[in-house]
User: Fold this.
Amino acid sequence: MVNTISSLTNRRFFSFLCAVLSLSAYFGTRMWAQVAVDQKIHVVVDLVQLNVAVTDRKGNYVTGLRPEDFAISEDRVPQKIATFGEGNEHGRGLADTTASQDEAVTQSASQGSESGRRVSQSELSSLVAGANVFVLFDTSNYMYRGFVFAQDAIADFVRSMESADQVAFYSYSRDLSRNTPLTFDRSQLLRGVRSTVAGDDAALYNCLLLTVKDAAKVAGRKVVVVFSNGPDNVSVVPPEDVAELAQSTGTAIYMISTNQAHLEPISTAVFERMTAATGGKAYFANSWKDEKRAFASIRDDLAHLYSLSYYPRPNPNLGWRTITVTLVGNRLKKYHVRTRDGYRPQPSRFSTASDRKPLEGPVAP
Assistant:
């Protein structure tokens, strides 16, 4: 009798235990499934900024264009221009900026794939104010012969920049040296240029990547001007990674290299592809006079760029987004447009269903 009761009790306990485990597994699976559904990677795309050069067939800059002369598309989806500026003037918000902004934020929130942040009219102008120029100087052992001449060319470039532009001066050989951070003080910059000394091997792409990351932290137009006397021989970062980060952060790269690098086909091709992808240019100088002319050409280019920006329309693509800028009207189709060709939205953070507020994050590329 006792054995019968004990056996019955054991069977009941075993059945109860199986039921508990089944319910735990069921609700646990439901809970993790719900978390998996609710957790999404949000990206912050507030404002995409573009530096656009327009030239004729002879390479002369075309000035006096208006916002309505430009058409922007992202992944073939037409975009509305939010701010516009030409040359060194501050960007101005257009009449329908607020409406476009509200539309972008509302539609992004309803989609659940992106999150936008409202930007005030005063912020719109500050985002596309004067250019922030980072000069990156090669002080490796490739530079021994022309070191002083290169310093002179950079010093002239710094002096000639408009007073509204902030300039930073960095140098590199195996490591990056942040000699002078962004400043309006030209005397401080010149002291930084003159204080450089020649180093050892050249880690161009490592140091250029760090420079682009510094530029990405700054709002407004971002430009990196590289003076390199030879190929990279110690970097672990591939140039493709540098180019993609520059495109995604809206940083134009200009490169001035001596004839020594031009004689190496691989470096030549890399320099030309990288600058073209970001909306910049590559120059190859045969002499110190050519170096000065190259710096003057960059200064001239910066003075004639159009600054355009837009709030991206809803786009489920979290990968590479292609940007196309064209000119509107038959009379303008003969001109050439140069700008970056796309960007990759930067992931912000995970968000759950309980987190419904727009995500704060860095200003978009």
User: Anything to note?
Assistant: The first strand starts at residue 40 and ends at 44. The two ends are 81 Å apart (CA to CA). Residues 41-87+92-127+305-351 form one domain. The chain has ten helices and 18 strands.
